[in-house]
């Protein structure tokens, strides 16, 4: 079954079949990253524009490397150096880029729905690389890929996602994706940072635990979310120190999870806040695997969307 | 898709005999068996390469190295196909430099698959030699490529399709000519 869609805007609209196709394709691409020549000619002559309206190192670099390893030409545009600062609208920016005939536009934007808006105006494939607090589909795909590679499956696993769920597009995309693949997703964090409408929205496979320890208990994977310093104007918790004590992942807390539980974090890590250094750098941490897998997953998405007519 | 079966080109017994002959030709041409690598092209070249390795083992009691190659990412028609094909995995030893590589596929037709396979191999290293073994050569080449070991040459028209049926993928083991009805 091929991926029959123009854009990848979120995991909400993906079927379990489509998700598995992307993950299976990514498995092949992961091997390419270990080859002597880490490049295949698959997207030769294709152009990919990375349009980033928010700061990013990991995601932007990952998309750029993914495109280059497929032999596409990749161009990076960041909002601070673009005509956006001269007052150009989002649609105008998109249509001007479209006029230069790219095959895919990868976009990150602080406003939820910005990629969806652009997708309506351009013929190229639009890939959402994070829109506000809404979705970050390739991050969820690489998380699932990392869990599947380590555990051999997703269905039936208990996956704890801890922290600032309210502002987290990673949490949303993972809730859709992991529950579609049959995992049990348990959220926990400060009550002020938990959107309780989630349980209704996602149905039975997504739950909230009353505290972090209960969420982590017997988990197969623990995913820590970043405290988003740039979105903390609301006074959601008293201090970083207190956050770390009540919600941070340390060795003692991790011991509550299954013995072979893995630790994930979408990065960038606030060491000593949501995760202690000995956990982040420990043997159960797959944080750097996630980064390596991110390139493979994005290659798969670019191949499936930007290849062909 | 429905096909009309026109004729049988090879039975399972024919295939077995032909594979034994090809294996013996490979051994004859490559006295140093430790340096050869049989590489099956996905999908049907993969079991055929294994079969050739088994025949060589029968004859010379030597385990020849094998590998697999998926040429999807090197195809020359990717930008024109509507649906992106499924990608299979390529499994080659870390270093193929200096090896004699024998590419194995079921049918040699336009030669485009072999062109893609050669490009992919070169990205893995610099083999000493590359040879080509195919069960069926059906003509209609579009590139200057020919096989070193051929099971059988079959005269075909452009509308005909050669189906190599293997127990790994199909319900029967035989080679037939089919045509769109």
Number of helices of chain B: 3
Unreliable stretches of chain B (pLDDT < 50, length at least 5) are: none
From the alpha carbons, calculate the radius of gyration of chain A and give it in angstroms.
19 Å
H/I helix tally of chain A: 12
Quaternary organisation? heterodimer
Topology pattern of chain B, helix = H, strand = E: EHEHEEHEEEE
Overall geometric form of chain A: globular
Tell me the radius of gyration of chain B.
Answer: 16 Å
Q: How many extended strands of chain B? A: 8
Widest beta sheet: strand line-up of chain A: 7-6-5-8-9
Following the backbone from N to C, one meets helices and strands of chain A in this order, namely: HEHEHEHEHEHEHEHEHHEHH
Low-confidence stretches of chain A: none
Strand order of the biggest β-sheet of chain B: 3-2-4-5-6
β-strand percent of chain A reads 5-15%
Structure summary, number of beta strands of chain A = 9
What structural class do the secondary elements of chain A suggest? alpha/beta
Helix content of chain A: 25-40%
The interface involving the most residues is between:
A-B, 26 and 20 residues
Q: What structural class do helix, strand and pairing data of chain B support?
A: alpha/beta
């Amino acid at each position: 079954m091929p991926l029959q869609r123009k854009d990848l805007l979120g995991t909400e609209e993906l079927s379990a079949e489509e998700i598995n196709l992307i993950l299976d394709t990514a498995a092949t691409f992961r091997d390419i990253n270990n080859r002597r020549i880490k490049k295949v000619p698959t997207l030769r002559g294709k152009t990919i524009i990375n349009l980033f309206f928010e700061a990013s190192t990991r995601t932007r670099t990952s998309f750029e490397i993914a495109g280059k390893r497929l032999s596409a030409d990749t161009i990076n545009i960041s909002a601070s150096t673009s005509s956006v600062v001269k007052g150009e609208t989002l649609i105008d920016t998109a249509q001007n880029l479209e006029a230069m005939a790219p095959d895919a536009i990868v976009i990150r934007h602080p406003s939820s729905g910005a990629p969806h808006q652009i997708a309506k105006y351009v013929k190229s494939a639009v890939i959402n690389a994070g829109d506000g607090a809404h979705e970050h589909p390739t991050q969820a795909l690489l998380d699932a890929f990392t869990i599947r590679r380590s555990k051999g499956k997703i269905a039936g696993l208990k996956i704890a996602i801890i922290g600032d769920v309210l502002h987290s597009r990673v949490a949303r995309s993972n809730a859709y994706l992991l529950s579609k693949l049959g995992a049990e997703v348990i959220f926990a964090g400060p009550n002020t940072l938990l959107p309780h409408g989630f349980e209704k929205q996602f149905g039975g496979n997504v739950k909230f635990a009353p505290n972090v320890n209960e969420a982590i208990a017997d988990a197969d994977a623990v995913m820590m979310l970043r405290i988003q310093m740039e979105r903390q104007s609301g006074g959601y918790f008293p201090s970083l120190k207190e956050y770390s004590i009540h919600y941070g992942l340390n060795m003692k807390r991790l011991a509550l999870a299954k013995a072979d539980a893995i630790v994930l974090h979408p990065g960038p890590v606030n060491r000593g806040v949501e995760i202690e250094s000995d956990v982040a750098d420990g043997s159960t941490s797959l944080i750097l695997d996630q980064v390596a897998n991110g390139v493979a997953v994005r290659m798969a998405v670019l191949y499936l969307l930007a290849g062909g007519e | 898709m429905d096909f009309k079966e026109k004729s049988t080109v090879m039975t399972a017994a024919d295939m077995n005999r032909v594979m034994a002959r090809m294996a013996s030709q490979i051994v004859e041409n490559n006295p140093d068996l430790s340096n050869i690598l049989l590489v099956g092209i996905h999908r049907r070249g993969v079991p055929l390469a294994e079969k050739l390795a088994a025949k060589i083992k029968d004859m010379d009691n030597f385990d020849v190295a094998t590998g697999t190659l998926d040429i999807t990412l090197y195809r020359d028609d990717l930008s024109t196909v509507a649906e992106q094909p499924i990608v299979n995995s390529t499994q080659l030893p870390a270093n193929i430099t200096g090896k004699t590589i024998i590419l194995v596929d079921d049918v040699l037709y336009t030669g485009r698959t072999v062109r893609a396979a050669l490009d992919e191999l070169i990205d893995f290293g610099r083999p000493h030699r590359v040879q080509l073994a195919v069960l069926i050569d059906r003509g209609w080449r579009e590139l200057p490529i020919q096989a070193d070991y051929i099971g059988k040459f079959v005269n075909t028209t452009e509308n005909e399709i050669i189906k190599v049926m293997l127990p790994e993928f199909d319900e029967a083991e035989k080679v037939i000519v089919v045509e769109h009805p």
